[in-house]
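Title: Comparing notes on inverse folding

I've been comparing how different people in this forum approach sequence design from structure. To keep things fair, I'm posting one structure and asking everyone to reply with a full sequence. Here's the target:
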């Protein structure tokens, strides 16, 4: 008999970000800032000293230590991954089995359900309300009723830009005894991290990434922070050399430059506020959108019936944002990129530029 793909694999397609080349990319929530010339030249020196003929450190000790020092956590509780995406895959592989259930909220980062599905687990989904907030009581109740093995959500959330308070997340942890994976990919832009208490919970894994505020999406570097037992599991089940030597060494350097990183963060927040302000004015003065959601991340979510049309027309002007059904998710770009986007929106919606001011 001929080889057959399993049902699970039959309809899978490779992940495809928007193809083609565009002048302004505001679709992937990356940092718009390049590393400084000084930092790049330091990385050049590091590259000279690296031995690429040798395997990397399996535990990525140095970069984990730098991460731990940067965020004030115990380095023993930190595990590095090839982006936090890899860590999500590792977690699903390790903790979910066929017949298990994962609870996610909707909308949230789509990879949670994807990796759970690969592990053969079923995904149970709880919809958010009109304000796109997580109903914490509903989440606790659903997790218990459905007897899920794991709850996974992002805080703050991609794609909504909304954030839960620390106290709300603590309540979820206290009320549930299943594994809770708290994805803090965008927490550098917000102030409600649970990192400093990660080691105190026996059912919590926190994920962080260098792809957003730290500006290293191309390096592929993420971290899981959890108590010793859970950290040991992650280290035991990951592939031995999951983070390459260059990512480890470059990550260690960049995470040692706290001041530079804080300066970059301030610039991103300034740009995010400017973008949110201009989009809100477009909504208030000209009613062009149904809703512009306040945000605690580096992107703004806009609700509009014309999302698809606007998305397509922006593309023809070489500006790309993320189209998500009746929503557009727009990453904060540089001031020049924001201007290009906002001017293009004015053209598409036939508005005077004065609406932006
Ligand atoms: N979690 C969330 C919520 C994200 O938005 C992303 C990136 N889009 C990731 C995880 C993955 O980040 P990375 O693999 O680049 O660390």
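Reply #1:
Here's my take.
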């Amino acid at each position: 008999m001929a080889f057959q793909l399993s049902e699970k694999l039959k309809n899978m397609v490779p992940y495809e970000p928007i193809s083609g080349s565009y002048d302004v990319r505001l679709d992937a929530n990356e940092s718009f800032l390049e590393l400084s010339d000084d930092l790049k030249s330091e990385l050049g020196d590091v590259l000279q000293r690296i031995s690429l003929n040798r395997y990397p450190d399996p535990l990525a000790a140095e970069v984990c230590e730098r991460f731990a020092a940067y965020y004030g956590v115990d380095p023993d509780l930190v595990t590095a991954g090839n982006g936090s995406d890899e860590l999500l895959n590792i977690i699903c592989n390790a903790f979910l089995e066929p017949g298990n259930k994962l609870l996610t909220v909707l909308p949230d980062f789509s990879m949670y359900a994807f990796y759970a599905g690969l592990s053969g687990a079923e995904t149970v989904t709880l919809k958010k309300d009109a304000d796109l907030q997580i109903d914490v009581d509903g989440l606790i109740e659903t997790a218990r009723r459905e007897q899920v093995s794991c709850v996974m959500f992002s805080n703050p959330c991609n794609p909504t830009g909304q954030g839960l308070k620390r106290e709300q997340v603590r309540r979820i942890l206290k009320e549930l005894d299943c594994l809770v994976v708290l994805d803090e990919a965008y927490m550098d832009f917000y102030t409600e991290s649970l990192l400093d208490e990660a080691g105190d919970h026996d059912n919590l894994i926190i994920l962080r990434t260098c792809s957003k505020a730290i500006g290293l999406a191309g390096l592929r570097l993420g971290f899981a922070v959890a108590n010793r037992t859970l950290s040991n599991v992650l280290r035991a089940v990951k592939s031995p050399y999951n983070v390459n030597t260059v990512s480890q060494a470059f990550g260690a350097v960049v995470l040692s430059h706290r001041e530079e990183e804080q300066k970059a963060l301030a610039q991103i927040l300034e740009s995010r506020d400017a973008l949110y302000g201009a989009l809100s004015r477009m909504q208030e003065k000209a009613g062009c959108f149904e809703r512009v959601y306040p945000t605690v991340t580096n992107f703004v979510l806009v609700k509009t019936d014309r999302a698809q049309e606007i998305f397509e027309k922006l593309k023809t002007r070489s500006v790309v944002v993320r189209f998500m059904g009746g929503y557009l998710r727009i990453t904060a770009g540089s001031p020049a990129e924001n201007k290009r986007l906002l001017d293009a929106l004015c053209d598409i919606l036939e508005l005077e530029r004065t609406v932006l001011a």
